[in-house]
Amino acid sequence: MPELGKYADAVLSSYGISIALLLVLVIASVHRARRVRRELDEVEQRIRRNG
């Protein structure tokens, strides 16, 4: 790891916050995709039943 000197705390906390935000975005995207997929499956089932 490169020597960050007196800015080490700021740089490392920025990296940490960025990684945390990316993880939150990925988790939220996967959660939403699953929810939308489930809703689409329900709509498709209703269409098949009412045909």
The quaternary structure here is single chain
Mean pLDDT reading: 94
Q: Profile the largest sheet.
A: none
User: Judging from the principal axes of the Cα atoms, what is the shape?
Assistant: rod-shaped
- Percent range for helical residues? over 70%
SSE blueprint:
Layout: H1 8-50
State the main characteristics:
mainly alpha, 1 helix
Overview in brief:
With 51 residues, the chain is mostly helical. It has one helix spanning 8-50.
Structure description:
The model has no long low-confidence stretch (mean pLDDT 94). The N and C termini lie far apart (62 Å). This protein has one helix spanning 8-50. It is mostly helical.
